[in-house]
Amino acid sequence: MEKWKIMRFILSHHPPSQISRTIRIKFLNKKVYLCARCSGECLGIITVFMILYFLKSLPLFLHASLIFFLPIPAIVDWTTQTMGYRESNNLLRLGTGMLFGGALVLFAYCILLNRLTLFCLSSGFYFFYCLIPCFILKRSGKLDQYLEYLDKEAKGVSFQ
């Protein structure tokens, strides 16, 4: 039983009180909870891989635009939800996750196309995309609350 509890936490990485932020599927007669946004990311990764298989290449301007703009909805959705301004829903999490997953593939695709300048520039943008929400949450005091809450909830799961 403990194994399933740990696996559930790893796949959903949401405590039981946030189970509404997950997608439930049945696997081996067990309920498996998957993080809605991460499920969207996986779908986005698969979708963009399939699109790139047929396109083979992207014009530089389109490639750069997609890398820079696709992650923004996921960042805004997560940040505004964590700030307590609103509660997102799984359809929105799935959609923003797909956009973010697609951006990650396009980011890695820079290397295959030898667009190293775009890769380096994107790395800087992604660094700030991570830093800005953390800074906003830290300044508002919500980051510490969020981390304390997750820490408290995670203590119920043993990883030994």
Counting DSSP E segments of at least 2 residues, the number of strands comes to 2
Number of domains: 1
Oligomerization status of the protein chains: single chain
| Helical proportion, percent range | over 70%
Spatial separation of the terminal alpha carbons: 13 Å
Main pleated-sheet profile: 2 strands, antiparallel
Secondary-structure class: mainly alpha
What's the tally of helices?
7
Write out the strand line-up for the largest beta sheet, numbering strands in chain order: 1-2
Order of helices and strands: HEEHHHHHH
β content, as a range? 5-15%
Descriptors:
2 strands, 160 residues, two-stranded antiparallel sheet, 71% helix, mainly alpha
Short recap of the structure:
Helix content is 71%, strand content 8%. By secondary structure, the chain is mainly α.
Explain the overall architecture.
This protein has 160 residues and is mostly helical. Helix 4 runs parallel beside helix 6. Strands 1-2 form a two-stranded antiparallel ribbon. Strand 1 and strand 2 form a beta hairpin. The model has no long low-confidence stretch (mean pLDDT 87). It has one domain. The chain is built from seven helices and two strands; from the N terminus they run H-E-E-H-H-H-H-H-H.
Give the topology.
Layout: H1 2-12, E1 22-27, E2 30-35, H2 36-55, H3 60-69, H4 72-82, H5 90-112, H6 116-140, H7 142-154
Helix pairs in contact: 2-5, 3-5, 4-5, 4-6, 5-6
Protein name: DUF2085 domain-containing protein
Pfam family, one: DUF2085
InterPro entries: DUF2085_TM
